Amino acid sequence: MQAKSDIVSSKLRILVDCSKCEQCCKFNFNIGEKFAYEDLPLNGFPQELCDVILEKADDQYLIPEQCKYYDGKCQIFDKDERPIFCNLFPVMVAMSSRGRVNVYVDKNCPEWNKVQKMFDNKEYANIFFQDVVELIENNKFPLVFRKEYEELGYKLRKLI
Question: Which sequence spans correspond to the domains of the chain?
Answer without folding.
Answer: 18-158
